[in-house]
Amino acid sequence: MFWQFILENRGKAFGLAAGFIFGFLFLWVGFFKTIVFAVFVATGFYIGRKFDNEEDVSEVLDRILPGKFTKR
Fold this sequence. Notes:
This protein has 4 helices and no strands. By secondary structure, it is mainly alpha-helical. It has one domain (about 1-65). Keywords: Membrane, Transmembrane, Transmembrane helix.
């Protein structure tokens, strides 16, 4: 029953888990460290999504740091 609810409501379950984790981090380490952690998680998710979709990650990295990741 529990797993069936999770599978039928993936977005709600993910949101609940993310809210719990970030709430715990906020209480444990503080506001600004939690914000920095969230930025790192979002960046990792973005780059991971690029890899999953087989997109060119070097274009993104080249926009951030021009000339550092491309061979010319």
